[in-house]
Target: ATP synthase regulation protein NCA2
Amino acid sequence: MAVVPSETESSLNRNLPSLFYSDFLRNRFSAFHFSPSTFFSSLTSAFRSSRRRECLPLPLPSNYLDSSMNYSNASRVHAVLEDVLERVLTNMHRIQKNLQFWQSIAQKSDNRKAYFMVFERGPRAFIGETVKLLRGRAAQDSSLQNICQSASDYVNERVTVLSFLRCSLAIFLAQIYVEVDKVGEELITDPEHKLPSLLVTINELFSTLEASIGHLHAVRQSDSSVDGTYSIPLLFEKLPEINQDGSQWTDCEIRDAISSVYQNLDKLESYICSLVVKHRKPKNITQHWVHYACGAVGLSVCSLWLLRHSSLMGSSDLDNWIQEAKDSTVGFFTDHVEQPILSIRDELFETFRKRHQGIMDFEEVRLTSNSLHRMLLAFSEQTKGQKSPVNASDQEMLEIVMDRYEKELMHPIQNLLNGELARAMLIQVQKLKLDIETAMLELNQILRANEINFAVLAALPAFFISLLLIMLVRAWFKQDTKAEGRGRVARIQRRLLVVEVERRIMQHQIYVEQGLERDAHYMLGLILYSLDRLYSSVKRHAEASGEWQCLRQDIIDLARPGLQTSHKLAVTSRIIKVYDCLLPVLRPR
Model:
């Protein structure tokens, strides 16, 4: 017997699909809901998981992981310290690239700043600044001076914000590096107490960084020219108050502390990304949009001109030009590439193929020479009346013939009929024949050699064009403007990094002697950043030359906070003089 459903159940069954799909759509919409912090966090997390850059090593003993009693906790803390170092250095590099651009703009003249404000910030800024300039002209105001002043304010604000961010991150990086260097040995001997203490210290340093960046947020909230830049303050996760006195932690508490560090790193990276995006330098296409626009206009005019001469408009000019260009290219290739190469190939192979024929030519010359030798030998024996020696040369026997010939010429008619005059003349004809054949053989060799030379000369234009193309392609592939490259400019950049490290080491020592702790930490953070860039730029080249182990140890020594300044300066001097990847390229004179 079937059970009839009630009205409530039937209505519920009818609404069940709609409720299911409404929940499904609500969940999908919430999943696609855009949040800047979530977006940047997911973006940086995906990038970090796909590619992790090897950065400056931690100031830990080389046998830290092997000597640690609790390998799992030690490896986790080592991994989180490497992540903190790598991500802070990456953010500093992102800030540094944009800061260098704005500093270069700030050092230029007011007219150059005004040009940047009008022509190098995109079409929208061009239209806006042009409207302001025209309004100022109409109001008889110093509109150009106002543009220069707004350009200075625009650039100075970005320099100030990015410099403050770099300073805050450099101090944070230096404090963490000093703390790790301080407890490095103790992490091996007493890991149960030092690991929690180190995590607590990192949490306190995050709080200090939050207060420092919060000061920027409070100062720049009112007079910022960038909309929405300082609307969201930076708030880090805090460790629970319990068990922060350095006592032994459980594995769960260590995992929670490490998770808190990663959450703070994600928040820091999201905040830095949002600030850098608002204060970043314009893209290359934005800076040169005027050139690109002129190029687009020129390309459009050229396209219209080509369209006018194409077959679409009933003209055969374009087809004729293409055919002429094709014929010229084919003719050049045939005359200066194909034919010379084929001629050289044929001449070379013909030389090898006709080597036996050449031997027959030499054989003919040899037969003529042997015939002449026998004729001279017979004439000499008959003239002297005695047998000639076996080793008698043709020249000696030819002298006998010439002496007899001179005597016979005294009575030419009589000796022509009854003497040896005719025989002596035939021997001289045979000698002339031998000389002619020898000369023809040498001439044939000279002509063959000249044919190859002429073919090579015909191929020289194509050779020089190919060489030029190869040089252009090589220069395009070998773009060594950065320190990681292989050319002369890259070597200069790497040497400048060492000079920058040396200068900052001396400045750090001055701050230490003056008792300026914050400035000393700031300069130490910049030293670590420069050493990280040097570490990344020389690694591949030093590995190829077999210098990497020694150079790596020297870079690690330069990063040690406790090493004396004099020793660090000696290391920088050795680095720039000894290692091949940092030596200057000598130009040939």
Q: What stands out?
A: DSSP finds 21 helices and no strands in the chain. The chain has three domains: 39-283, 338-477, 488-582. Residues 338-477 form one domain.
